[in-house]
Specification:
Length: 304
């Protein structure tokens, strides 16, 4: 059973690390005031201030901040500053033992899918959710920010049903299934196949989303997952938003419908709006008829 974490309280410190790409200075200036409005203190680690080409600092710098945030006794939870590219470059150098000795909820999505996979391999659950620079400080994401901060204070407990009132366009294949919820960005899930950090698909509920990928590229990634046996191994699927290109619904149906497994489509998570949080690495039950996802294990537990 993955490690669960306690909810946030007023005055808690939240660490912000740049595990992948850099942010613009005007975005950084908005982060501390945002967290302050929600009664929290944001601690931006040095990588947040760095900009080295398409990366937020060197691999050494970003890895050092990731380790420091987990080891810092003051930090309660950790957000990735944004996605972009680069977190996968850290995988073979992450000190898994350090993360296990100082378990903390890690929050992010997109390129951060690679770190979610690493944390799952370490026995640590995490949260696929909006990030400060790419989402929370931007206009138009106020509802996502409010929903996320509410969740971080109220918790995610076993037995809780996630059944958002908002949904992105999608389709379903009727049925229900149980298993650990894994996955994230489709291109990252596919790129990890064949590596020691690949998501373990057997009996899992696989969540997929992506951005700016044309249907033929979605086809390429799904083909790789099919040929690797990953799609056959999964117990069911949750499909989030696929944004900024033509809908890949026909491609998704081509690969998933013949499997005869439940597909819960139109889930409001990923690069589109709304983008609601999903707990990664905890066991869930999906019911595509009821359009619900029920937690069978807790992730965030409130304290008296």
């Amino acid at each position: 059973m993955p490690v669960s974490y306690r909810t946030l309280r007023d005055g808690d410190v939240v660490g912000i690390v740049a595990a992948a790409g850099p942010a613009e200075p005007e975005q950084l200036a908005l982060i501390e005031p945002l967290f302050a409005r929600h009664g929290l203190r944001a601690k931006l680690f040095p990588s947040c201030q760095r900009h080295t080409g398409f990366l937020a600092g060197s691999d050494d710098e970003r890895l050092r901040d990731l380790h420091a945030a987990f080891a810092d006794p003051e930090v309660r939870m950790i957000f990735s500053l944004r996605g972009g590219y680069g977190s996968g470059r850290l995988l073979d150098r992450i000190d898994i033992g350090l993360l296990q000795r100082h378990p903390k909820l890690f929050i992010g999505y997109s390129d951060i899918t690679a770190l979610h996979a690493c944390l799952y391999r370490a026995g640590l659950a995490s949260l696929h959710a909006p990030m400060p620079a790419s989402d929370l400080v931007r206009a138009g994401h106020e509802d996502d920010a409010a929903a996320l901060f509410t969740l971080l204070r109220e918790g995610l407990c076993a037995g809780q049903a996630l059944q958002p009132t908002h949904a992105v366009d999608g389709w379903c294949i009727a049925g229900s299934a149980e298993g650990p919820l894994i996955g994230g960005n489709l291109s990252l899930v596919a790129s990890l196949v064949g590596t020691p950090w690949a998501w373990p698909m057997q009996g899992a509920i696989l969540f997929l989303e992506d951005i700016s990928e044309e249907p033929y590229k979605v086809d390429r990634y799904l083909l790789q997952l099919r040929l690797s046996g990953a799609l056959d191994a999964a117990a069911g699927f949750v499909i989030g938003s696929f944004s900024d290109e033509a809908s890949p619904a026909e491609v998704l149906e081509h690969y998933l419908r013949p499997l005869g497994k439940p597909v819960l489509g139109g889930w409001p998570a990923g690069h589109g709006t709304p983008n609601r949080a999903l707990p990664m690495g905890v066991r869930v039950r999906i019911d595509s008829r009821a359009r619900s996802l029920v937690l069978l294990e807790g992730l965030l537990i409130g304290q008296p």
